[in-house]
Write a structure and sequence with these properties.
The protein is of the alpha+beta class. It is built from 16 helices and 16 strands. Helices cover 41% and strands 22% of the residues. Bound molecules: adenosine monophosphate. Its main location: cytoplasm.
């Protein structure tokens, strides 16, 4: 688990702000759900025989209640949807959220035990139009974040029936090749054979390359749904690849599945920026009505590594250096007046030479230093030093707030 230090926050804020703006522009509203949920919620939705539930959850018992730090957002958001009977209020619900998730994984670059996700969920729209829109929204966001080498992978995993038939077909194919599989996959053959398709073990990859794909097991309706997704993505001009072996680590998915990868040069094997898909049966399984749903989650830490967008480095806009005893209180008042006009100001009343004060102004990356000495106080003026333009002006105290805020505004344009 990591500390996020203040130097890194500008990039976090950029990502969170652009995500929230993008989500709102598609009609999503923000929801916040608790970090702790009953363990049973995750076991029922994510699935017993998944890596997350088998080995990665931070679970504990509190007063006889089995609780877990959420390993992902969807289950909690879906629980909230059911609990508040939101389907009685509106036919389609679009929610986004951001926050920490917890998985006891082996930490590596882009993989942490407390990590943050951006998350969107749509309830009540069977797709595939909204499936394509979600993907398009993300591609647009990643373009704004200047993430190189973005690739969209899509697949359909069908409905429950197709999935059950495929499971049988896959087991029939893999069983005779059991000895060629890794020990983990041999075990998965009994518990969750679809997960073998997702294995990173080179032995498994060789076997899986030959395995039947889900495509031939899809029902006509599943196939029509997937064709609709392909047509919508094409109409939106989103480049994508159909990956027939794409399955995801959580059990609840139906039909549309997608992943978005990017910045592989920096992220290596952990270059999956987004995982998403449909989960048309979950709401009913949680005791709600039959409501289709789709969502995705994206890891903020990975976006931070991947993004090449420039972020502002300035800590404050202006720095005030009072020189001499009589200047301290006028400097405090000037600082307060500037802040009221929206200018972020550091008043450094520790004293010291002008040189050392200007060094500090540069360290704060601010564009303007205001110098107030005894003689300025006496003459009712302030020296305004523009550190970017390398100019200095003597401005009347009554004018200086406007002067500084106008100059900063002109610069931000
Ligand atoms: P998942 O919830 O497993 O489908 O993951 C969705 C996205 O969350 C991934 O594509 C990553 O971007 C991110 N993610 C998942 N697990 C971690 C982790 N342990 N550390 C950092 N990011 C993660």
């Amino acid at each position: 688990m990591n500390d996020v230090l203040p130097d890194e926050m500008a990039r976090w804020h950029l990502i969170e702000r652009l995500f929230a703006e993008a989500a709102r522009s598609y009609g999503f509203r923000e929801i916040r759900t608790p970090i702790v949920e009953p363990t049973g919620l995750f076991v029922r939705t994510i699935g017993e025989a998944t890596d997350v539930v088998e080995k990665e959850m931070y679970s504990f018992t509190h007063r006889d209640e089995a609780l877990t730090l959420r390993p992902e957002a969807t289950a909690g958001v879906a629980r909230a949807y059911v609990e508040h009977r939101v389907h009685t209020l509106e036919p389609v619900t679009k929610w986004f959220c951001t926050g920490p998730m917890f998985r006891a994984e082996k930490p590596q670059r882009g993989r942490y035990r407390q990590f943050y996700q951006l998350d969107c969920e749509i309830f009540g729209d069977p797709g595939p139009g909204c499936d394509a829109e979600l993907i398009d929204m993300l591609v647009g966001l990643f373009d704004q974040l200047k993430i190189p080498d973005v690739r969209v992978l899509v697949n359909s995993i069908g409905g429950a029936e197709a999935r059950a038939r495929y499971r049988d077909g896959l087991v029939a194919f893999l069983e005779p090749r059991r000895e060629e599989l890794s020990a983990e996959s041999q075990r998965r053959l009994q518990t969750n054979p679809l997960r073998i398709l997702d294995s990173k073990d080179p032995r498994d990859k060789v076997v899986v390359a030959e395995a039947p794909t889900i495509e031939q097991y899809l029902s006509d309706d599943d196939r029509a749904h997937f064709d609709g997704l392909v047509r919508a993505l094409t109409a939106l001009g989103v480049p994508f690849t159909i990956d027939p072996h794409l399955v995801r680590g959580l059990d609840y998915y139906t039909r549309t599945l997608f992943e978005i990868k990017g910045a592989s040069a920096k992220l290596g094997a952990g270059d999956t920026l987004v995982g998403g898909g449909r989960y048309d049966n979950m709401i009913e399984e949680l005791g709600g009505p039959k409501v289709p749903a789709i969502g995705f989650a994206s890891g903020i830490e990975r976006l931070i590594i991947a993004s090449e967008a420039t972020v502002p480095g300035a800590i404050v806009d202006a720095y005030i250096a009072p020189l001499g005893a009589s200047a301290v209180e006028p400097a405090l008042v000037l600082g307060r007046d500037l802040r009221r006009e929206g200018v972020a100001v550091e008043v450094d009343s520790r004293g010291g030479s002008l040189k050392s004060q200007l060094r500090r102004a540069n360290a704060l990356s601010c564009g303007i230093a205001l110098i107030l000495g005894d003689s300025e106080v006496e003459s009712g003026t302030v020296q305004v030093k523009d550190l970017a333009a390398h100019t200095q002006d003597s401005i009347a105290r009554a004018e200086v707030v406007r002067f500084v805020s106008d100059r900063l505004k002109a610069r931000s344009r």
